[in-house]
Amino acid sequence: MSALSFPCTIFTTKNRMDDFGAKDMHCGDLSAEQLKKDFGLSIVSDRVDPWTLERKKHQQVSTYPASSSWKTESISKQECINILFDEFRTCSKTFSFYGPYKDNIIEMITHMQHKKGLDFSSSRLDAALREQILTDSSTTNSSRILLQKALSINIDWENGFLPLNLKVKLTDAINGSILPKFDRIEDRFNGMGISVHDTWATQISMKSLRIEGDRFRAVVHYKIQDHFGLDNQDVLDWKFREFRLFRIWFVLQRYSKFAFKPFMTNMETTIEITGERNVKKN
Question: What pTM value is reported for the model?
Answer without folding.
Answer: 0.90
